[in-house]
Write a structure and sequence with these properties.
This protein is of the alpha/beta class. The protein has ten helices and eight strands. The termini are close together.
């Protein structure tokens, strides 16, 4: 396999936003009538887009737009700035990939506003070639549409692409898209037992780990011996 591009999920993969979304999800549960909501319920919503979460609450799709805008702004102005931060080594990793001629994509179930603000907040916007999000024009993960759209925009062959994510939705989307799927296990927001049951191709500690391996053009016998980086 020759790697020409790496597509990353955003939250829980490039950005440590678990606590930000957990606190927002818990507040959303309470706001929409679940006053006694527990953190376990907030965890179950991780990885879903605002629209998917609203559907979980039984909100009709015709009413999603007005709520999504409010959810976005509260995340950007409060939860992101209070809780989110980049994972260590991610920025350096992306720079190394770019210097090796490997193109970088992002596919996230967050909205365009959150995507743009997050990339700027963690100072990696200029390192990403293509970013696709839940903007209403493409089906969200676990469907493969986002990944396929990023591949098309990057103008690379799908058999030369690695996808890096952190949730069950990421594994399902990658498998449907026919991509090799690397799943972070110590930095992500997905439930490890559920992820393992879906049999991702590789389990890794974090996104910066796979970046280091790829950019250094060296394999790891246990995990990455099949990679042949150009």
């Amino acid at each position: 396999m020759r790697v020409e591009a790496v597509i990353f999920d955003l939250d829980g993969t490039l950005v440590d936003s678990r606590q930000a979304f957990l606190h927002q999800n818990l507040d959303l549960l309470k706001e929409f009538g679940k006053r006694d909501a527990r953190m376990e319920e907030a965890i179950s919503l991780l990885g879903q887009s605002p629209s998917q979460i609203l559907s979980t609450f039984g909100i009709p799709k015709s009413e999603h737009e007005k709520y999504v805008a409010k959810i976005d702004m509260s995340y950007i102005n409060y939860y992101m700035k209070k809780y989110a931060k980049p994972f260590s080594g991610v920025s350096q990793c992306l720079k190394k990939l770019r210097d090796k001629g490997i193109r970088i994509g992002v596919a996230t179930n967050t909205t365009r506003e959150i995507l743009e603000e997050t990339l700027k907040w963690v100072k990696i916007k200029d390192l990403v070639n293509v970013a696709v999000c839940a903007d209403g024009t493409v089906k969200e993960k676990p469907e493969p549409d986002m990944l396929l759209q990023v591949i098309e925009k990057l103008n690379v062959s799908s058999d030369k692409v690695i996808y890096v994510g952190d949730t069950e939705l990421d594994v399902l989307a990658a498998k449907k898209a026919g991509l090799s799927c690397f799943i972070t296990v110590s930095s992500g927001i997905g439930r490890l037992e559920n992820i393992i049951n879906l049999r991702p191709d590789v389990l890794i500690p974090g996104a910066s780990w796979v970046c280091r391996v790829i950019s250094a053009r060296c394999g790891n016998e246990k995990y990455l011996s099949h990679l042949n980086i150009r």
